[in-house]
Write a structure and sequence with these properties.
The protein has four domains: 82 residues, SH3 type barrels; 246 residues, Ribonuclease Inhibitor (Leucine-rich repeat, LRR (right-handed beta-alpha superhelix)), CATH 3.80.10.10; 56 residues, no CATH class; 82 residues, Ubiquitin-like (UB roll), CATH 3.10.20. A hairpin with a 2-residue loop joins strand 8 and strand 9. The strands form six sheets. Strands 10-12-13-14-15-16-17-18-19-20-21 form an eleven-stranded mixed sheet, covered by helices on one side. Strands 23-22-26-24-25 form a five-stranded mixed sheet, with no helix packed on it. It is α/β, with parallel strands linked by helices.
Length: 549
């Protein structure tokens, strides 16, 4: 009634709008991850933005092209972005702050607290280079009737941001061993711990594409991740220093994936990561090869992936050429694709590794130092003595022998000019030559020093696809006259067999080829790989192709 005191009043439209907007904002909104119209971002500001009314969220987007500014509005800096167009202001009701872990699991599996599992199929999740089977929305009814029977869980891209009620995960999903939590809204490593501490047998976790805040100091001792073997932290903005701080809680870790985190500085692991066998540091910024010395004492490390880092040099200063370094003592696989390696001295250095068996160096300038890629592969094979796989192709014994013989012939003249000699008493090649060709003397000891006749007519390796004048002889068929032919040195043995089929009318599959060098009469060398070119076997002008069937 008019004039009567009022204990309450109707809210204005502006006040209603304010309450509606603020009701969507969690108390710890600043620093939280959000999802808005399919775009991921981090809240860096909550408050008013005059002259507009109401509350706004200041968001830095993962996609720097998504925003409109760097956190500044009308000359006032509300928050800071790494990129000029990385920031936006949005209303709180447009932001999805995510759900707790169990809510995502139940939705993903179509299960409620009082429901049984539904019939479906298994899905897979890729962690680093491995494919791990994770039961997703489709699980087999007979095997996955209830959440407490699940071993593998995938909630990839399900907006998980919180652990949820304490101990609920342990009660509901006690048998989890593997989790795919990639591309969610986890904003803190502490939230990951809150999930992990309820899963006693956790072995594999994929947390890639969660932009998280990691601890700035060593965490208290805990058994949360005591059985963790595989951890993926790709695209999480983690630094190497933060990895080492967290690693005190990973006593059994074997595989660690840290791709695309802008890591440029390493530190020496002290009492951590000693069980690590596989480390992926690809797509970072480790341009200084000397940084690798800081992790060279990881005694269990077998695979190291350094692709796309801008690396141009690798150096092991603790030993001279011809000796094995103590660094990376267990390393068997090294992958450096897409770097800036152009100097052959890097390949010489890799021969110092004690256990290296597989090397992948595609998309480096070094691979283009010769017009013929096969020549480059031969040189790498010759320079790294224990290598068994190069760029994912197996190196067979006959390939190694051919590569080492070619190397010996190619650099024979340089060896003589540098002081090398067939006379052991006069053989004193210069230090400069030995540094450039540390395995050359080993080849001389193994196959004999290059003979003068071999070196006089040696053709530069850069002259590829040259025509070779060859004589084709059938030693078991004396009635068959020798045939003179000019063949390109790039011609494969398979194509040579096809040519001989047309010339001799013999099925190519029945042919057995070898060759005799004009410089070493009486010695035959088998042409036993149909896919290799003539130049692979160092066939030269005036040599003879011997044909048998």
């Amino acid at each position: 009634m008019r004039g009567c005191p009022r204990s309450s009043r109707s809210l204005t439209c502006v006040e209603l709008l304010f309450l509606t907007m603020t009701s969507n904002i969690p108390p710890d909104a600043v620093g939280r991850r959000i999802l808005c119209n399919g775009e991921y971002g981090t809240v860096l500001y909550v408050g008013s933005v005059p002259p507009t009314a109401g509350i706004w969220l200041g968001v830095e987007w993962d996609n720097p092209q998504r925003g409109k500014h760097n956190g500044t509005h009308e000359g006032i800096q509300y928050f800071k972005c790494r990129y000029p167009t990385g920031g936006s202001f949005i209303r709180p009701h447009k932001a999805n702050f995510g759900v707790d872990f169990l809510s995502a699991v139940k939705k993903q599996y179509g299960l409620n607290d009082d429901e049984q599992g539904t019939e479906n199929e298994a899905e897979t999740a890729v962690i680093g280079r491995k494919t791990v089977e994770c039961v997703g929305f489709d699980s087999v009814k007979e095997k996955q009737k209830q959440l407490n029977t699940l071993n593998d869980i995938s909630v990839d891209g399900c907006a998980v941001s919180l652990a949820g009620p304490e101990e609920e995960i342990r009660k509901t999903c006690p048998n989890i061993r593997r989790i795919n939590l990639s591309k969610n809204l986890l904003s803190s490593w502490m939230e990951v711990i809150a999930i992990g501490c309820q899963i006693e047998n956790l072995e594999i976790v994929n947390l890639s594409q969660n932009k998280m805040k990691f601890p700035a100091s060593t965490l208290p001792a805990s058994g949360t991740f005591c059985k963790l073997k595989v951890l993926a932290l790709n695209q999480t903005d983690v630094t190497w220093a933060e990895v080492l701080l967290c690693a005190t809680g990973w006593p059994a870790i074997e595989e660690l994936y840290l791709a695309s985190n802008e890591i440029s500085i390493l530190q020496r692991p002290i009492d951590v990561l000693q069980t690590l066998k596989w480390l992926d540091l690809s797509d970072n910024q480790l341009t200084d090869g000397n940084q690798l010395h800081l992790i060279a004492d990881l005694l269990s490390l077998e695979r190291l992936i350094l692709s796309n880092n801008g690396i141009s040099s690798i150096y092991f200063p603790d030993v001279q050429f011809g000796r094995k370094t103590r660094m990376f003592s267990s390393l068997t696989h090294l992958i450096v694709n897409g770097n800036r390696i152009a100097d052959w001295s890097v390949i010489n250095e890799l021969d110092k590794l004690q256990s290296l068996q597989s090397f992948d160096c595609r998309n480096n300038p070094l691979m283009d130092t010769d017009k013929n890629r096969e020549t480059v592969k031969q040189l790498i094979t010759a320079k790294i003595g224990q290598l068994k796989f190069l760029n994912k192709s197996q190196i067979f014994p006959e390939e190694r022998k051919g590569a080492e013989l070619d190397y010996r012939k190619r650099f024979g003249i340089d060896w003589i000019k540098a002081g090398g000699s067939q006379d052991p008493n006069k053989n004193r090649p210069s230090e400069e030559f030995l540094a450039a060709h540390p395995r050359f003397q080993l080849f001389c000891d193994k196959y004999g020093a290059p003979e003068d006749g071999e070196l006089e007519k040696e053709q530069p390796f850069s002259l590829k696809n040259q025509l070779l004048s060859l004589t084709i002889i059938c030693p078991d068929k004396p009635d068959q006259k020798p045939i003179k032919k000019k063949l390109p040195d790039s011609m494969t043995i398979q194509k040579v067999k096809g040519l001989l089929y047309r010339l001799l009318r013999i099925p190519g599959s029945e042919l057995k080829l070898s060759y005799e060098s004009s410089k070493m009469k009486g010695k035959e060398f088998e042409l036993d790989n149909d896919l290799k070119p003539l130049q692979f076997y160092s066939i030269e002008n005036e040599d003879c192709i011997l044909v048998r069937w």
